[in-house]
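Intended use. Records like the one below are meant for learning the mapping from a protein sequence to its folded structure. Do not use them to infer anything beyond what is encoded.
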Amino acid sequence: MAAGIALHEENLDAFKRRFEEVVEAAKPPLRREILKIDAELEMEDLDGALAETLTSLHPHGMGNPEPVFFTGSVRPCDPRIVGKNHLKFRINAAEGPLEAIAFGKGDLLDLVRKEPVDIAYTPRFSTWDGWRRLEIKVRGIRPAG
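Structure written out for the chain above:
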C-alpha cells in the first residue's frame, strides 16, 4: 500500500520518530504464518486448462488475492536452492512433471528431501526465453499429514 504526504522540512525528524513508533506498535506478535486455503486439489487435476481459468481472475491484489490450493502427500523430485534462498523442485501433475518454486524458503530443503510433504500453492504460467509453461508458486510446506 502507498500513501503520500506533505510536510515542512523542520518537521521531518519528528514525523520519522512518530511514524516508527506507530509502525512498531502495530506489529502483530510473532506467530506461525497462517495461510487461507481456497480449495484442496489433487495433482492429477492440476493442468493448463485450470491455470488458464485462474488467469482470467487477474489482476490480483488486496481485494482479489491469488487463489491458494492445498495438496497433501506430494513427493518432490530434484529439490535444490536457486538464487539467494529460493527452493525449487519438481512434482508429478496431470500433464507430467511440473516445476515448483518456493521463494525465500531455501531453509526447507532438508524437509522436502525427506518427502512426502503437504504444500499450499498457486498455479501460474511462467514465461522465459519465449517458452510459456505451467508451474506452481509454493506458499507453504510442511511434513505430510
